[in-house]
Every structure is written in C-alpha cells, then in structure tokens.
Automatic annotation (TrEMBL):
SMART domains on file: DHDPS
Family of this protein: Belongs to the DapA family.
Full protein name: Dihydrodipicolinate synthase family protein
Gene3D superfamilies per UniProt: Aldolase class I
Pfam families (UniProt xref): DHDPS
Keyword Lyase: yes
SUPFAM superfamilies: Aldolase
InterPro entries: Aldolase_TIM, DapA-like
Keywords, ordered alphabetically: Lyase
CDD domains named among the record's database cross-references: DHDPS-like
C-alpha cells in the first residue's frame, strides 16, 4: 500500500529535445532517500506534451535507475484506446503501475469515466493510480464515482488534485482501502486523513514534504507555502521554475522545457 511522498519527476530534456538519462539518474538519486515512489511523465514531467519516444525514454530511464523504489508511470492521452496501448508498453518496460486521468473533454460523463478505467484494467491488467484533476482533462471524478472506481480490482491509489480540501478529506474518510494522496502543496495540512502527497515540490524538497505529512500544523504549512513561492511552484508554469532551480543546484544539466511550452 502506497504512502508518504511520491515524486512526480521532472523530465530532464536536452536542448535537442531528447531526454537526458544522466540528469534523470541524478534527480532520482537526489530524492531517493526521502520518497516512497517515482512518478515520471505526469503533468510536472510535461507528460501531456511528450511524444512517444520522449515518454518511452523517461519511463525507461526511471525504471533503470529506480533501485528499490516503485515506478508509477503517468499516461496523459485523451482517449481510452491510446491509454491502453501506452499502458501495455509501460508494463513491458517494467513499471509497477500506471497513473491515468479521465478521458479528455467537458462532455465526458461519470459513466464514461467508470467504463474508461474498467476498460484499461481489463485490457492491460495494469495496476492503476487514479488521477482526479480538471485542468488537463476538462472534467473531474465525482465522489460517488470515486467510490465505485475503488471497487475495481487493481486500483492502487488516488492522486486527488481537485483543489478542494474538503472533498479530499471526505474521500480519505471513506476508508475504501485505496490510499489517497493530496496533489496540492498549499492544501496538505487541510487534507487530514490522507495517506501521502504527490506534487512538484518533492523534486526539490522531499524532506519538507515528509515533514508536513508528519506535522500538518499551520506553521509547517506556512513554511511549505513560503518555499513554494520562492521556487515558483505556485506559478502556472511551475515545471519551468522547478527545472530552473534543479539546474541551478547542478542536479539536471539543462533547464530546458518542451519546445511547445517555450
């Protein structure tokens, strides 16, 4: 059962758009002692922009350098069939689970969402981490739907990024047996009962992320908020600023972001 701080890894890119394996290894070594899992190719890893080769490389390099840490590969594609194809590739690479949003589109119904996850599980056998967000997919998972999804065999976690701490608490209090992770740094202390945290700050300060999980006081939350402000984690293009700081620290060789985001 997953818990603690899971890091949604940045994707270190060279100026020629290839994924930098050495920087990936250094980043993993930087966080290794403080995190309980590695989550490449999610939003913080610019996962919705990565092409097939870039996605394959960052997932492959993460598995290669993961040591004993589980790898949960992000898949950010709009359609169920596309996700199934990529989930199969992820399992072939050797990941422990896949992290999947709902299908993209404002018209997606809650029934569509349930069938989406059931189809992925049935077609691939992959353990699935549910990713509840709205910014990318254009829709979100309602409470009753989440409860239904938690009954599907092979659901192993929820990245709860609704931005509503009361909703996250309610989901944690449901005691489904599926661990719930807060996806927003500024809401960690307000989301009582969670099993852990998944957010970009973990790339820079995983120890601080662990500290607030143990001590979710207003004072500790203020400390987290101040660090996030310092490093640009609360900006809309947080991945750019987190990469800049990782580059300044000598952890990744280049602060380059995907060409479509420059």
């Amino acid at each position: 059962m997953y818990s603690g701080t899971i890091v949604p890894l940045m994707t270190p890119l060279n100026e020629d758009e290839t994924v930098d394996e050495r920087s990936t290894a250094r980043l993993i070594d930087h966080v290794r002692s403080e995190v309980s899992g590695l989550m490449p190719a999610l939003t913080s890893g610019e996962g919705w922009k990565l092409d097939e080769r870039q996605w394959t490389d960052i997932v492959t390099y993460t598995v290669r350098h993961s040591g004993d840490l589980p790898v949960l590969a992000g898949i950010q594609l709009p359609e169920t069939a596309q996700i199934i194809e990529r989930a199969r590739r992820a399992m072939d690479i050797g990941v422990d689970a896949v992290v999947v949003t709902t299908p993209f589109g404002a018209g997606v119904t809650q029934d569509d969402i349930v069938e989406h996850y059931r189809a992925i599980r049935a077609a691939t056998g992959a353990p699935i981490f549910l990713y509840n967000e709205e910014a990318l997919s254009g829709n979100k998972i309602e409470y009753d739907t989440l409860l239904t999804l938690c009954e599907i065999p092979g659901i192993v976690g929820i990245k709860e990024s609704s931005g509503d701490a009361a909703f996250t608490r309610k989901m944690a209090e449901a005691a489904t047996g599926i661990p719930v992770f807060e996806g927003w740094e500024n809401l960690i202390s307000a989301a009582s009962g969670i099993n852990g945290f998944i957010g970009p700050l973990a790339n820079l300060e995983p120890g601080l992320c662990n500290a607030i999980l143990v001590d979710p006081t207003p004072e500790r939350q203020a400390e987290v908020d101040a660090v996030c402000e310092k490093y640009g984690v609360f900006k809309d293009d947080w991945y750019r600023w987190v990469k800049k700081e990782l580059h300044t620290r000598g952890i990744i060789s280049s602060p380059a972001v995907h060409k479509d985001l420059r």
